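Regression report. Comparing outputs from two consecutive submissions.

Submission 1:
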Amino acid sequence: MGNYLLRLRRRLAIQAPPNLLDIYSTSEPHPQNALDIFKGEWVSRLPKPYASLEAGTATLFEDERIKWAETELGGFKDKSILDLGPLEGGHPYMFEQAGAREIVSIEANTRAFLKCLITKEMLGLKRVSYQCGDFMEYFRKNKRRFDIVNASGVLYHQRNPAELLALVSRAADSVIIWTHYYDQKIISGHPSYHSRFSAGDMQEYDGFKYQPYRQEYGVDVHVPQFCGGNAPYSHWMTREDIIRCLNYFGLDDIRISFEHPPHTNGPSFNLAAMRSKESSAS
């Protein structure tokens, strides 16, 4: 039996800590204890009253890009929202605070999923349902429609980003997207990441053709805070192709904000894409 369990553990790549007593907390119950389960891995700073706790620094629980989209889309109150890649739960928190009726949030990174459960408990969220899995597989097997899809920070992690744009456009008439995009002039002149990119073969999804640019994660996949895609590489689209793709799949009212070509990790922009009444009628 002992040899069988050893072989099974190796097969499943399960490694217990050297001493199981090390996983116990011996201090008074406190929110920091939960955050310290992933000590050094947090990206986000928590909102009040937990902002002083030791976590990350990114203001994803108070994201101005989401506040802007809320105004452009006529508010989140009483809306059903599908949230893709919540990371640590910042955007779902904002949607619930803004009165959304239901938030379904899908996270493939299992450690990020567990961090979302921690922040959900800490912040007392009641209308957010976190699901652990690949949202692309969710789309392929689930035809449910929502009022809004939030696809912020996920497009540039896809191997076929046009497929994601098509799927979100079929799932809702309103979509929020923040993403990096490929710009030859900017990226070729950037010393720290230009070597990670190469032009790939032309891709097509459901009749839409575009030029993808392959981006390699490289050693980033070994960094504890890694929050990229589930493959060693992804494909980026140009800014023009992103807009053209959304138009192709029926989201013809596109509003843009937070243009940031010199972003540290590559040019980026934020958009709210909607299906106009004229387009819906046709």
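Submission 2:
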Amino acid sequence: MSISKLCIKALKRIPETIFFWMLLFSGFVTDIASQEKIFANYFDILTGSPGGSEVIGRIHLERNKDVLTSPVPGGYHFEITAQPSDLIEVKTHYDEANRIMGILSVKAGMAMPAEPCVYPLSVVLLDRDTPLNRFDVSVKVVDKTLWQTMYDRYKGFTLDNSRLYGRNKMSDAEIGKRIIEIEQNEGYFMNFPSYTTHPADYLKQKKVKGKPKRGEPTIENEWQEITNIFGGMGYAYAKSAIYGPKGDPGARLRLKRALYKGLRVYMNSVPVEGSDLLIGGKPIGNHTGDGFSLLLSHHLSGVQTPTHQWNMTDALVTPTIHLMPDLLKDIKNGDQEALDLYHANIRYFQLFFSIVERRRPIDDPDNRWGEIQDTLYSSGAWSDANLGHRLRTMLALPILWADYNRPLTYVPYWYSSFYGDKPFANFSFSPGWSP
């Protein structure tokens, strides 16, 4: 029997917008008795994809958010237990942060069906020989992937909203100067001490004493200056007559390589993990995001940016989104610099979900979000008018992840498991929502 006949007949097309919101607010697949929560909600791949092609969407564990304090056991791995034909294989992969994931791909010498269909699989997560979870996966074989649909819909918006390129349209001459600057300085822009300076030393250099006052120079303002430059370079990559898609191929390649290097160097210079920044010889915090959000608690930043996190991410949306098609191709071809930038994206954008210390309590009626544990009173964190500002980055993240099942964030206090079913079962920082 042909592979096409072994596939489930393609279902009537569900509106793409519904699929998109399913990604943002998806749950998890898990066996009731298991110890691990698995994210494996949606997968797709182009019709006719040849051997070696990766299915879009990887299998993830919720525990990946805790790898810094509770590493994934070395014996964990995935296996396929049933499929209509010997067409797809799964490989267990650990990323640069030692998060585990299962990668589905077409076996060598095989190809996906030429017509749209749904290809079912059964998968098991094992700890050495002990099964932990058994779950079913449906790979949609499609003429156009959901990722491509999301990219096509959002890329135009990145050019229509000036926040998403730092309100910075640069001349081609300016772009050329910035490319040279990156090429000659190992990815750095000149005259920005924030790249290599501890936030406390940055304040000393700027002669800021004690608790910074409004308007005094703190390090996050310089970070935003850098993001605005990248925003202008990203706009050029999308629109410039010289550096854009219809411009000079050589010039465009130079801009791409400059963005790969410059974005990675900048993103990795900003503290995100609690262990990224030491205060008195000890990590500033214990959680993902603490490296950025707890600056305020130590009077190392102003108030505005840590409480309005989109100021750190908005201007990077245009460059990162418009790089993605080339980035994914380059990663597939083994380009290490492209892969390093992909990892830097995942790391850096975690700060978007970080919350300053004074806005984390769940039982404070005077908090910005209200008394979160009283769901008759509060809808949870971010349940205010600023959600509209936050959506700009939230809509970009599934495109930047290029993985339908990777959670939007690893910041732990957004997960219900962080609270241990208190004050009620499945309670979370934003009740009813999961990353």
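Expected: both submissions complete independently.
Actual: both completed, but the second showed a warning that disappeared on reload.
Relevant detail on submission 2: The chain is about 35% helix and 15% strand.
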